[in-house]
Amino acid sequence: EGGYTVASAIYGGYVDWAKKNGHGALSSTKFGKRLRGLGVNKKKTRRGNEWELVLRPPAHLTVVPSPLQIG
């Protein structure tokens, strides 16, 4: 499941996260290039640039089925 979110909202959330966790934030340009490098799609709309967000677990995590899905 996913959708598109205004780029400034995603970048603002990233900057807040970086500050709270003691990291220096990338510039918005570098952040956008990093997202594109990860295969995240961007589109231009009347609201401005928007990034596609797909909610899925990272590849390095093993997904364990819930007890309701077993048997």
List the keywords.
71 residues, 23% strand, 2 helices, alpha+beta, single chain
At a glance:
With 71 residues, the chain is α+β, with helices and mostly antiparallel strands. It has helices at residues 7-20, 28-37; strands spanning 2-6, 42-45, 48-54.
Description:
By secondary structure, this protein is an alpha+beta fold. The chain contains two helices and three strands. The radius of gyration is 16 Å and the shape is globular. The model has no long low-confidence stretch (mean pLDDT 79).
The proportion of residues in beta strands is 15-25%
Compressed to H and E, one letter per element, the order equals EHHEE
Number of helices: 2
Oligomer: single chain
The helical percent reads 25-40%
- Specify the structural class: alpha+beta
The coarse silhouette is: globular
* Count of extended strands: 3
Distance between the termini: 25 Å
**Low-confidence stretches at least 5 residues in length (pLDDT < 50)?**
none
The average pLDDT value, as a whole number, equals 79
Strand order of the largest sheet: 1-3-2
Radius of gyration: 16 Å
Describe the main β-sheet briefly: 3 strands, antiparallel
Topology of this structure?
Blueprint: E1 2-6, H1 7-20, H2 28-37, E2 42-45, E3 48-54
Antiparallel strand pairs: 1-3, 2-3
